[in-house]
Design brief:
171 residues, eight-stranded antiparallel β-sheet, 2 helices, globular
Length: 171
């Protein structure tokens, strides 16, 4: 009986810890979302735009938003010859990546109904907390098709962000 009680108590404690961690992560996400909203609503930024940064990545414009000489947000616009369009926003707090919002739109293989992909990634101390809504939506049938990222995608996004930070902060 004592063994059963100890086992049950351990499982209850474990579930409580997991739920508590999820609540903590949810609170962190809400705080990051609020910070991003404040950044988007602020109109007092100094902007710096770099055009035609890298022809291989189809990056057509790269804009940095600065406040008090600190880079706060990076906005990237990508386009291809076949109508594909993607925007990526990197949000920074104290020069550290806290959020990535990405929207991508492309026509289907027949050129009629487009597909749309939308993702959000949340970071704390350069570690992923959570990713949201990473799926393709077909406007033809309304179905969602979920992306499967390779294991190094976080590092790739962080590398891209760091490369763009260097471009935008270069004198």
């Amino acid at each position: 009986m004592r063994y059963l009680f100890c086992t049950f108590s351990f499982i209850a404690l474990l579930i409580s810890e997991v739920c508590s961690q999820n609540e903590t992560d949810s609170m962190k996400i809400k705080k990051i979302q609020l910070t991003c909203t404040k950044i988007d609503l602020d109109t007092s930024y100094t902007n710096k735009t770099v055009r035609e940064v890298d022809s291989l990545s189809y990056l057509t414009s790269l804009t940095g938003y600065f406040k008090n000489r600190k880079l706060i947000k990076i906005f990237c616009n990508y386009k291809s010859l076949r109508s594909w369009n993607k925007t990526t926003e990197f949000y920074l707090l104290n020069d550290t990546l806290i959020c990535i919002n990405e929207n991508e739109k492309e026509p289907d293989t027949h050129g009629s109904a487009p597909f749309m992909r939308s993702c959000s990634f949340y970071f704390e101390n350069e570690n992923l907390i959570r990713s949201d809504s990473c799926c393709w939506t077909s406007f033809a049938d309304g179905k969602k098709h979920y992306d499967l990222f390779d294991t190094n995608w976080e590092k790739k996004y962080m590398d891209v962000c760091n490369r763009y930070k260097k471009l935008l902060t270069a004198k």
